[in-house]
Queue: 2 jobs
Job 1
Amino acid sequence: MLLVLIDDAGFGNPSTFGGPIRTPTYTRMAATGLRYNRFHVTALCSPTRAALLTGRNNHAVGFGSVGEFAGGFPGYSATLPRDCAPVPRILRDNGYSTAAFGKWHLTPDGQQGPAGPFDRWPNGWGFDYFYGILGGGSSQWDPCLAENQKIIGTPEEFYDEQHPYYFPDAMADRTIEWLHGVRAQDAHKPFFVYYSTGCSHAPHHVAKEWADRYKGQFDEGWEALREQTFARQQELGVIPADAELTPRDEAFPAWSDVPDNVKPFYARQMEVYAGYSENADHNVGRVIDAIDDLGELDNTLILWIWGDNGASMEGSVTGSFNELTMQNGLPLTDEMQLQLAERYGGLDAWSTSLMAPHYGAAWAWAGNTPFKWGKQVGSHLGGTRNPLVVHWPARITEEGGLRTPFSHVIDVAPTILEAAGIPAPDTVDGIEQEPLHGTSFVASLSDGAAPEHHTQQYFETIGNRAMYKDGWWLAMKTERIPWLLTPEALAPYAPGVWDPDSGPAELYYLPDDFTQAKDLAAEHPEKVDELKDLFWREAERYKVLPLLATLSTFFGMVPPLGGETSYEFRGDVQNVMPGMIPRIYNHSYTITADLVVPDGGAEGVIVAEADHLGGFTLYVKNGRLTHTYSMMGVFVFKQVADEDLPSGDVTVRMEFRADSAKPATGGDVALFIGDRQVGKGRMDHTVPVRFSGYSGMDIGRDNGGVVDRSYEREKPFAFTGTVERVVFDVKPHLSGEDEQQLHTAEQHGQAAHGLSA
């Protein structure tokens, strides 16, 4: 079995479903398999993945939100209950070899290191082997990789300029290698591969030649793209002939209102996204070809979902040269974004490691054609309906057929188990199991007239709600724009302020209205009330409550302040994941390092976090202690000592004295050798939330993309002396009140990051 999940993509993206992105492998599988045009997901990354792998509703298995956000409510704990054994565990226990490749996104931020616990890593979910990334997004050029239960960091091939590393290529290579290894040992043992691409999540990284295949194809803008996609969808028959194209919401700009001088900037964003996505199709094709070469394609069930939550609108209106600027609350206009892109190589470098790009929200809206909205918006089909192709020649009798019954991501696990002839277990490890919430759609593989198997389903993502029953769909969307997660934008949703039942309610009858174009709420108020009541019953049953638990930190419900204020790292510690670095944001802190400097001096990095698009590094170059700090690549600050580093046992220190304890505070920097100040400088702005979504912190070197490009040619610029230890003190000059306020601000930021991952 092969289960493929594409990330952050929409119903109107792949050409197989009428989109502009060439997907020949997906189309080949559909031509000899089946297209499903009413398949649904949860509107957010981790919740879809948890539901997919367990066959249960996402809140019921602790994933009301993303893996980074481990909250205090049962439906939002990011902890898989032991009475909900996932399908890879069941398959493994029944004789399957199991492996996962690519994006995981089900391990909380603070557990992505050697201390575990590992029950929340892929091996703990039943996979014999894992190769990929634990978090929600990653550079495709220099990911911080995990293999099984170890963070292995930046691949060595990253440093090979002649044959550079590319994560999607490596995913396919590793999958094929694993399949060959299994077959070398056992010619008949069944396998289950979960192939979850980092594409098309930001940053949108792909070789220039892939992006250039789409040169000029998006110059007419997003509205024209939607119209063209809609026409192709009708021609292909993947949407009904009488379907209506939904209109543009005013949250998205009209293409005609975009200044002419920045239209090429926007068009390039979509060219890169399209090339990135086509490459994903190509690499999935390599895996499928390998299965075919083994002579096993006809009897291999392939389920391929193109998108886990609709296309992502979190690039905001402008798109960004650095996806983390939105999460850190930097208000950059399209002109500013274009200027910053020019700083890092211009539009031709948009897809390279010099930037971490995300496209503008209107391109995502176009990618979700013909529906409204997209990722995060669980109330509407743009966030919840994605293409599904099923390929299994041994069982499918109607090649190229279309299947239209309502189906949901929780149906995949029971479908896999029925196809394998394995009943869902009553107990696992002596623990009575929660029954699967989904139902198998195996019958539809051979019977196009099979009845709709899934007749009722709730949806909820960050307060955006829907209730489906027997063709009717109740939609209740909050007024918040998905890319706005500021305290001001969230204030109307505080407890005691927001009445969730008082907001606008829309009602659609999907058998007659494929796209949610005809709101019938005013005509059927009794149906609105009926579905509202049903939603609340389902919410109680499946641990959805309290609504907006994902945003609880914005409403004063923050976890206890950690007691650690001093963090010590030895010289061999590498790849500390970005959610686990010391809490240096928004206040004063010091970094102290004990070094052994040989006669003749030493050079190299003492400690570095992330890269030039956001990070800090303390290093020695030309004999001088140096500190560089990148505020998301927008501002870069540098301080250099005014004397050389002596030899012998040496203690150096960088002190940041904040102007005040507040988000993004400026402050003064001082450099010390021993107790003697040897340099100083000023940082007018600091990063308020997070330097990176994927790049780790290293002691004694700067792995992957470097923070200070002055030592780019020497990367990873390992320290040539000895770094014995590095100590962070994150509580100098802080009062208890300041510390609590900053802790609250940090939790706000982590929630904002998590919801964008």
Note: The chain has a mean pLDDT of 95.
Job 2
Amino acid sequence: MNDWTSGYVAELDYSHDFFHEMTPSRLAFAALSRGHRHGLDDNRLTYCELGCGQGFTANLLAAANPHVDVHAMDFNPAHIAGAHRLAREAAVPNVTFYERSFEDFEEEATLPNSFDVIALHGVYSWVSRENQERIIDFIARRLKPGGLVYISYNTQPGWAPSMPLRRLLTDRASQGNGSLEQRIDEALDFAERLKLADAGFFASNPGQLTRLSEMKSMSRNYLAHEFFNKDWTPFHFADVADDLAQAKLEFMGAANPLDHIDDICLSRPQQALLAEESNSVRREGLRDILLNEQFRADVFVRGWLPQTQRGGVGGWFQTPFALARHYGTGPLKVSWRKGDIALEASQYEPVLQALSDGHHTVRALLEQGVFSDMTWGDITRMLTILTGAGYIVPCLPQAGYADRIVRCRDFNMAVCKNAEDSERLGFLASPVTGGGVAVDRMEQLFLLAQSEGHQTPNDWATFVWRILEPQGQRLEQEGRVLDLPEENLAVLRARAHAFSARRLGILAGLGVSLLQADPSQPEMAHPTAASSQSGAVA
């Protein structure tokens, strides 16, 4: 490897992913749920992403949040070149990318003096101790008082059994010849041979057989960055908390709201053990032991400002929510750490039905009588669970929507045009939430067809087939590649009708559209139930 990589994988590019937890409105909700008075409702914010990879998250967040000045850095020039290109294609003016290392990023003269949010996803466990110290120093110098840090990292004890397997794979890959992808394949094949030879490690650690099987099916680009770096550190929570304490930060809470509710994560005996620990850092470490945690996504704050009871209720009252997933009828299944979470249909159904007509604040839902005779604790608990499970999503205020919808439409058009020959970009920007919405390639092409005047699902299917056929791409159904045009068109039509019935209304409610629309109000969602059929591109 060249010296500029500092031991980090540069031979294979990182994936183009979007990480919901980094969305400002979701960080604001996490703070509200934990009783912290955040400043993320200001009309001008500064946001910095350290180790932005392909820059897709930074680009999307900037498009969906024109009031946020986004700055993002990565050491890989190919990543930054691609991020710049998407920013130009999508006309995103409020994002700046830097090809910098952690060593010299602080010297960048054009950086703001301070940031409201500093985020790093999938970075801290994968860089050297020297670079970890540089990250902490940057946070100490640049994070505003009251500012938030989002940080995700591998943790102990969950990764402890996998460390010998990871060492075996990286050592084997370092000895091989050929491209990194070829060396990864060879290392996995060698581990498979050890399994077939009844290696004692796998006999004593049967969970690693599952991990090996999962790794074999993963993208080699993802594996390269996840497992094959020179540096790879699964942390104890206390060590990360101690590092961030050097920058005057304290733990605020998990980024996923479901982890704010102990009784859906832990058994009663486990909760009792946890209650005996009064120290917040030791409490999180004990929690990781109870859950055998292997990955954390946390939010830290520089200066905790606890909400008053009245202020906390007021924050909930002002928070708008939108429907994020189709809901028809029947029991709602929410699965989490302890398995399925039981929710009362009489409680959640009125909420989901009310949000099917568009986004509403909690105050508006209360005034409509949606919560019936539920206690305030039950209301906030249910909204937290529905948010963590992805059925509803917190939204931005109405102010600024006109600007957001124009910016998001430009960004989404660029992404959907990219879908004509690629499936790399799997998210579109929502002007309602300020975050991303998962939209696969076929759905993006259906939206593109609609934007070009094709009005019916059958027309959308024909439009998509005209793109796929000359590229030699065919759909799959039940494991069989469809050769005949009429077979491919039949599957595309079924998917287009399902998209129209189940997804289009949800996307409209989130403001995700390529059509010219009245920017004064978000579009209302009217999803209806329909069966869906899928067809994967071969």
Note: The longest strand covers residues 143-154.
